[in-house]
Design goal:
alpha/beta; Rossmann fold; five-stranded parallel β-sheet; two-stranded antiparallel ribbon
Length: about 210
C-alpha cells in the first residue's frame, strides 16, 4: 500500500469528516494543512487534498498558499481532490481540478459533497465489505472478504451508481441500486455496455 498524505482545511467540519474517512480507508491520519508543507511531499507516494468551496466558489487562501507550494513538487505522483460545498453546483472543484491539471498535477480523481452526504459513497463500498486505498496512479479497491450484495442508494451521484454496478458484478447475491438512472449524467449508455460485457442488469419499479 502506498504511503498517502491526506491534507485538508475545514471550516464547518464537513471536509474534515471527509478527510478522516479517506485517511481511515488509506490507513493513515488526516493532517490539517497548517501542519503540512511542500518539503514533506517527498515523504509520500500519493496525496488527497481537501478544501471546501469558499466565497465565490474558490479555495481558502491559507489552504491555497500551501497547495500552490506543493504543486511543483508532486511530479507524477497521484493526487486526489475532495471537499464540501453548501451552495452552487461544485464549480470550485471543476476550477481547481482544471488548474491543477494545467499545472501538470496527476489528478486521479475528485470527490465533492453537498454539506456532508459523501458518507453515502463510503457506505456503498463498506456495505460490500471493501476498503479503499490509493495505489500507484489510481484507486485500488481491496476487499477484506468476498463482496456481498446489498442495497445501495446512489444519492443522485452517477459515480456511486456505476461503482456499485461494477462491484455488484463480482458480489455474491443481488445488488439493488436505487436511483441508478443518474448514470445518464455522464454515461447514458453505461448499462447497455455493462450488459455487453457480461453484466446482468434489469430495471425494477421502485
Amino acid at each position: 500500500m502506498s504511503k498517502v498524505a491526506v491534507v485538508y482545511w475545514s471550516q464547518s467540519g464537513n471536509t474534515e469528516a471527509m478527510a478522516n474517512a479517506l485517511a481511515e480507508a488509506a490507513g493513515t491520519q488526516a493532517v490539517e494543512v497548517s501542519s503540512f508543507s511542500a518539503d514533506m511531499v517527498d515523504d509520500y507516494d500519493a496525496f488527497a487534498f481537501g478544501c471546501p468551496a469558499m466565497g465565490a466558489e474558490e479555495l481558502d487562501s491559507d489552504f491555497e498558499e500551501v497547495w500552490d507550494a506543493c504543486v511543483g513538487a508532486f511530479g507524477d505522483k497521484p493526487v486526489a481532490l475532495f471537499g464540501s460545498y453548501d451552495w452552487g453546483t461544485g464549480e470550485w472543484m471543476e476550477t481547481w481540478k482544471a488548474a491543477a491539471e494545467d499545472a501538470g498535477v496527476n489528478v486521479v480523481g475528485d470527490i465533492i459533497a453537498n454539506l456532508d452526504p459523501d458518507d453515502e459513497a463510503l457506505e456503498a463500498l463498506r456495505a460490500m465489505g471493501a476498503d479503499i486505498s490509493i495505489e500507484g496512479d489510481g484507486l485500488e479497491i481491496q476487499g477484506g472478504r468476498a463482496l456481498a450484495g446489498g442495497v445501495v442508494d446512489a444519492a443522485n451521484d452517477h459515480r456511486i451508481a456505476m461503482m456499485a454496478a461494477v462491484a455488484g458484478a463480482s458480489a455474491t447475491g443481488e445488488t439493488l441500486i436505487r436511483g441508478a438512472e443518474c448514470v445518464s449524467k455522464s454515461y447514458p449508455g453505461f448499462f447497455d455496455d455493462y450488459r455487453k460485457l457480461g453484466g446482468i442488469a434489469e430495471e425494477r419499479d421502485a
